Amino acid sequence: MAIKVGFVSLGCPKNQLDLEVMLGHLVSEGYIITDAEDADIVVINTCAFIQDAKQESIDNILDIAWLKENGKLKGIVVTGCMAEKYREEVMEEMPEVDALLGTGSVHSIVEAVRAVAKGEKFKEFKDKNTVELGGDRIVTTGDSMAYLKISEGCDNCCTYCAIPKLRGRFRSRPIDDLVKEAQEIVSLGVKELVIVGQDTTSYGIDLYGEYCLHKLIRRLSEETDVTWIRVLYCYPEKVTEELICEFETNKKLVKYIDLPIQHISDKILKKMNRHGDGELIRNVIKTLRKRVKGISIRSTAIVGFPGESEIEFDELCEFVKEAKFEHFGAFTYSREENTPAYDFEDQIDEEIKEERYEAIMKTQLSITDRQLKSKIGKEVQVLCEGYDPVSETYYGRTADNAPEIDGNVFFLSKIKIPEGTFVRVRIKDALEYDLTGEIV
After folding, report:
1. Which residues are paired to 426 by β-bridges?
2. Pairing of β 296-303 and β 327-332
3. For the chain, percent of residues with pLDDT exceeding 70
């Protein structure tokens, strides 16, 4: 009888793509994929980027452990960043866990599941710098969109971030491999490709000696039938002239860029080891606004970084008002072990971090409110992603909204709208982060 395997995937889209590769391996070996409640073995793909993500991973492991104690579940496999970061502690502190796979062992999922099915313990931590990138995958994001991970690891070494230790050095995937994978995905009916990586703007520097994100986008647009291409995780200092030109001229590349700044104060940016100052960030945003008409810019910032005084925080708040980001998220600084910033002096009190977070998000909320209300009465193109039985409305996204992180458009329709269909919607109202309307 075939073994049933359930999955829980936490963290970012890049982690989800590892999950899809693991699914591909298991399905090819005849395993049945099912819900965690009905599984013989559950794989928990964890995140450990910040403290909240680590806690979420622990909570999920303990929740699944209850199924092992009270149901039919026979084993638990833990993969991903938390497995990599806490190689010894996970099994010691949570004996319910039967197998651990580090980030370099994603392709060993079949061996891990096979061992657990036999009642054996299993641990493997292959070199994360030499792991094969990509692989056959099972797309889990539905008919409307799919992620395309173009690189792994990171060489930027921001002082607050453990990713280089968890994911290894920066490695790009060859353009031909990515185009082939994209063609296979789009042939399934997917309408949008979302390009991800720890630093997408560094794409190609290791393979081709130059930044090649614009070349990859051009190949994807010319050699697939995809409708939308979207890019996330762009570093401001690596937004090249060629990439800006691609935004200007490529009709498949949506006018949307994810541009995490993390701060605007030169003092704090330097302490973070970000490779660009406040003037560079301002100039990049100014150039994008001027040359790419109607572009939507998403950004993020960290508040409460060690040494951030009221002066630097106020500078950041004023910049958010000035930049008028279409989408913006803030994070309180998370003090992570084995990062340079962990030992910095002038650590900020947690209460002050929370106050600053609330203040800056309140600032952004007023900007978002004005921007959304300006869309009332207009017609927009929406990619339908499904039907919400609670609100009894369909929902989807415009080109201005990235999946999972930005708002949605909820709309009424008298006819059935399949997932992955483009429709025209007239906007009737604006909610906190979402829009409502009706199909035209």
Report:
1. 379, 438
2. parallel
3. 100
d(CA 266, CA 274): 9
Distance (Å, rounded) from C-alpha 158 to C-alpha 244? Answer: 25
**Count of CA atoms in the C-beta half-sphere (13 A) of 369:** 7
Per CATH, the homologous superfamily of domain 145-373 is tm_1862 like domain (3.80.30.20)
The DSSP H or E segment spanning 423 is strand 422-430
Bridge partner residues of 395 (DSSP): 386, 410
Q: Tell me the C-alpha distance between 121 and 260, whole Å.
A: 40
When pLDDT is averaged across residues 421-429 and rounded to a whole number, the result is: 96
Distance CA 50, CA 13 (A): 16
Tokens 């075939």, located at residue: 2
Q: How far apart are CA 269 and CA 280, in angstroms?
A: 11
Residue 334 is given by DSSP the state: -
The structure tokens listed for 102 are 């580090």
Q: How many Å apart are CA 103 and CA 110, to the nearest integer?
A: 15
* Whole-angstrom distance, CA of residue 176 vs CA of residue 185: 14
Average the pLDDT over each of 46-55, 99-108, 126-135, 397-406 and give the range with the smallest value.
46-55
Residue identified by tokens 């697939």 is: 224
| pLDDT confidence of residue 71 | 75
Q: Which CATH number fits domain 4-124: 3.40.50.300, 3.30.70.2190, 3.40.50.11900, 3.40.50.12160?
A: 3.40.50.12160
Give the integer Cα–Cα distance in Å for 408 and 398.
8
Question: Is pLDDT above 90 for 401?
Answer: yes
Q: What per-residue confidence (pLDDT) applies to 1? A: 67
Across 156-263, the runs of DSSP E, i.e. the strands, are 171-172, 192-196, 228-231, 253-258
CATH 3.80.30.20 in the chain is located at 145-373
Q: What is the rounded CA–CA span in Å between residue 126 and residue 143?
A: 34
Residues of the chain with CATH 3.40.50.12160: 4-124
| Positions of CATH 2.40.50.140 in the chain | 379-439
What are the structure tokens assigned to 77, written together?
Answer: 């496999």
379-439 fold: OB fold (Dihydrolipoamide Acetyltransferase, E2P) (2.40.50)
Task: Give the global pTM.
Answer: 0.93
* Segment among 61-65, 351-355, 423-427 with least mean pLDDT: 61-65
Residue-averaged pLDDT of the chain: 94
